[in-house]
């Protein structure tokens, strides 16, 4: 079933959000977007800065238009180590024209049109519209998500005062780096490295739900959906994530079912990466799951 927290409305009509779940206090996922000059940009390009990321549906709507202008105006109140990133599915050409015509010089506009990487990695992709939900996320210098505001009614503006209040806390109280049993993303794995020993496999496997351990060399799980369209949509979503993670799961689809099998081919067994990927997939919403 859809998580109630992953539902917003547009003119009171319910819409579902697809992608990974994020949480305040967790690591900010990497994402890839395109700037006004069609150059690929990623979150880590802004390492060392506090990031305010504000997403919106389209610059061709009054509320989104005002959202970018308002953050551009309020940037005068911010320190030099804070960057503001505005992101949408608008084409880079439209974003560039908007910034030129409205003298937007403090907000960095990025387009998520190619693979919806930002929308998928931050759980802000509106499935029915293939647009980004209206949201504001603050990421600190340690790459920790410190604040997340998802506007429940898409035609409403963000709460700008709440954002600035949260930003003051972020700049005054930097946290210790988050500690997790596994890294937040897959790491390169070289051929010839040994697979995980059985003790480590069982330790990590105990933290998973609904997965099957196959011959201590693979983990596998079946996801069930309402129909074929829902299954395919979920497969498309996790395919983008897998490609960005440098992981290559085995997928099979049968009408409304998607089976995912994870192992690290280069080492002929399981690695930490397989359990990282399993955790990411479990936290990803693609359509209406019925299991």
Description:
- By secondary structure, the chain is α+β, with helices and mostly antiparallel strands.
- Helix content is 27%, strand content 25%.
- It has 7 helices and 16 strands.
- It has helices at residues 62-74, 92-101, 117-121, 160-172, 198-205, 228-245, 272-282; strands spanning 7-10, 13-20, 32-34, 40-42, 50-55, 82-88, 107-111, 125-126, 131-132, 135-139, 145-150, 212-214, 218-224, 250-254, 257-262, 284-285.
- Strands 1, 2, 8, 9 and 16 form a 5-stranded antiparallel β-sheet that branches. It has a 5-stranded mixed β-sheet with strand order 7-6-5-10-11. A 4-stranded antiparallel β-sheet has the order 12-13-15-14, covered by helices on one side.
- A hairpin with a 3-residue loop joins strand 12 (212-214) and strand 13 (218-224).
- The longest helix has 18 residues, at 228-245.
- The mean pLDDT is 91.
Q: What is the topological layout?
A:
Elements: E1 7-10, E2 13-20, E3 32-34, E4 40-42, E5 50-55, H1 62-74, E6 82-88, H2 92-101, E7 107-111, H3 117-121, E8 125-126, E9 131-132, E10 135-139, E11 145-150, H4 160-172, H5 198-205, E12 212-214, E13 218-224, H6 228-245, E14 250-254, E15 257-262, H7 272-282, E16 284-285
Tell me what portion of residues adopts beta-strand conformation: 25-35%
Structural class: alpha+beta
Instruction: Count the DSSP helices.
Output: 7
Distance between the termini: 7 Å
Low-confidence stretches: none
Can you summarize the main beta sheet?
5 strands, antiparallel
Helix content: 25-40%
Tell me, briefly, the overall form. Answer: globular
Say how many strands there are: 16
Helix and strand succession? EEEEEHEHEHEEEEHHEEHEEHE
Mean pLDDT: 91
């Amino acid at each position: 079933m859809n998580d109630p927290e992953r539902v917003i409305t547009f003119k009171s009509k319910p819409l579902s959000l697809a992608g990974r779940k994020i949480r305040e206090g967790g690591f900010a996922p990497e994402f890839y977007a395109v700037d006004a000059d069609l150059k690929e940009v990623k979150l880590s390009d802004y390492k060392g800065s506090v990031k305010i990321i504000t997403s919106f549906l389209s610059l061709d709507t009054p509320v989104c238009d005002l959202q970018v202008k308002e953050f551009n105006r309020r940037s005068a109140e911010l320190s030099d180590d804070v960057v503001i990133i505005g992101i949408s599915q608008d084409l880079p050409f439209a974003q560039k024209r908007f910034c030129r015509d409205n003298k937007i010089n403090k907000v960095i506009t990025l387009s998520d049109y190619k693979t919806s990487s930002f929308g998928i990695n931050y759980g802000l992709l509106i499935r029915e519209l293939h647009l980004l939900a209206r949201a504001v996320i603050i990421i600190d210098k340690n790459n920790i998500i410190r604040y997340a505001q998802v506007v429940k009614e898409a035609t409403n503006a963000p709460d700008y005062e709440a954002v600035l209040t949260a930003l003051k806390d972020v700049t005054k109280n930097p946290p210790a780096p988050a500690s997790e049993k596994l890294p937040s993303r897959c790491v390169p794995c070289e051929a010839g490295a040994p697979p995980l020993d059985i003790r480590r496999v069982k330790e990590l496997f105990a933290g998973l739900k609904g997965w099957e351990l196959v011959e201590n060399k693979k983990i596998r799980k079946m996801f069930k959906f309402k129909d074929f369209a829902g299954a395919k949509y979920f497969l498309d979503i996790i395919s983008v994530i897998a490609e960005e993670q440098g992981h290559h799961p085995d997928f099979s689809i049968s009408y409304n079912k998607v089976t995912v099998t994870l192992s690290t081919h280069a080492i002929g067994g399981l690695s930490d990466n397989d359990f990282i990927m399993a955790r990411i997939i479990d936290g990803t919403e693609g359509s209406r799951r019925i299991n």
